[in-house]
């Protein structure tokens, strides 16, 4: 049987369009995350990893009708592996900034990436940075929180004590060697959830968000996952995950429960204005 030239061109066009489809058309996402960042992803007693972002990735898969193939590796290797095509996207919490947004596509933020203090359970309430003047604050050595405190030490008059791990810094609060500990808001919440001798205190808002990164050439998949995240915000799943892993009920209007217009993070490269209405319809 002889094909006509037009039929041959049509076949080539169909092949090209199929090749251009995102990886999710095959039914599986290959997803990478850092498996040592509790409570977002950490080793489970039964093997594998568990945590907020593991659940988030699997819920996205459920909403899209896809299977998640999750691989835990070091955070430093995630973005190179994504760019090499090893992963379809990264499920690890990744702060969106200008430099990263120049090289990656991001979904809308799934959570605010704020700083938070923990203090002894019987301590007075702290409602501002000024309330920590003259206090000794324990922090993970070399972290962003360490730099934040040291850059403001002269202004606020606090003493910064750096420890090898944030666990050690929290222990300093529990044993009375420090008045407070500063860490990421979710890490602080996880610590307070597990230790009745400490409690959450003042939260410092950075104005930044965590989002999920994709390759620059994969707008279609980014947009689908963005819509799935919107659905999870609307149907209460994100709030439920926050309560499960952090012991915190999100406040109305915060990023974790509030869909963002368009696709991506407004104000950063890769953001796509769009007037779609967030919903859980027609995702799979």
Automatic annotation (TrEMBL):
Keywords tagged on the record: Signal
Its recorded name reads Transporter substrate-binding domain-containing protein
Instruction: Tell me the ranges covered by the Solute-binding protein family 3/N-terminal domain, including all copies.
Output: 28-249
KW Signal (keyword) present: yes
The record's section on Gene3D superfamilies has: Periplasmic binding protein-like II
Q: Which domain of life is it from?
A: Bacteria
Signal sequence region: 1-25
Q: Where is this region: Disordered?
A: 257-284
SUPFAM superfamilies for the chain: Periplasmic binding protein-like II
A Pfam family found in this protein is SBP_bac_3
